Amino acid sequence: MSTDYNTMAKEYQASKLLPWRIYMESYSFLRWLGPIKSLKVLDLACGEGYYTRKFRREGAQTVVGVDVSPSMIDLARAQEQNDQLGITYHVADASKLALVQEFDLVGAAYLLNYAQNKEQLLSMCQVIADHLRLGGRFVTINSNPTYHAPASALYHYGFTSENKGTHEGDPVIYKFYKEDGSYISVTNFHLKKETYEWGLRKVGFKDITWHHLEISPEGIDMFGKAYWEIIMHEQPVIGLSCRKA
Ligand SMILES: C[S@@+](CC[C@H](N)C(=O)[O-])C[C@H]1O[C@@H](n2cnc3c(N)ncnc32)[C@H](O)[C@@H]1O
How many separate helices (H) and strands (E) can be counted in the chain? Predict the structure, then answer.
């Protein structure tokens, strides 16, 4: 079953304040993306615009955010209204998107892990390729296909991740906990690393590289090295970058 972000847009937004999101996810993703200044950037599965705003603040020339959830885009547009950065948002399915714009960089934090099979993955990869100029890069952060720790391993960091199996299409269930012990649940789907690479190569990407999460020096200063040991070892999410040939 796919996740309905419309019912939990605000709770998902709050989960972006967890320390691992700030000092690992965000720090690592921005490093994999590299310099953004003056680039035309498309943010697919942009949610409420957490990274979309960062791209613009990092100096991107044009930033467009796309998400299938109207509630997520409502939150993104409300923030744009309060603090106008010049970002355009669209409600659309990233596997069917057809903007008449070409970008230097496509970023996607947690898009490909919604593909349940090769066919859905290929549609997403095709859309990504269609919106990039030749030589443009695609950089993503995704559920890690090789993560197999017990569900509770990451509870310490405010969330859990449970792989329901290792067959393609098997659910990967995340729970993000609130202070009162309640949680929101997000379902991704397992595809093998080779399947992601196959989909990207098939639409013309090369230089496909996987990246491990890192911790920012600030995160180590604030929480100490020991705090990060488990999540650094388990690597629940993973980065991937590639270039349109
Ligand atoms: C885990 S959230 C990440 C949001 C944002 N990238 C972030 O990191 O804060 C995943 C987002 O993907 C969106 N999504 C899932 N499938 C999609 C699709 N086919 N096309 C566009 N967005 C999609 C969901 O609506 C949700 O907002």
Answer: 9, 10
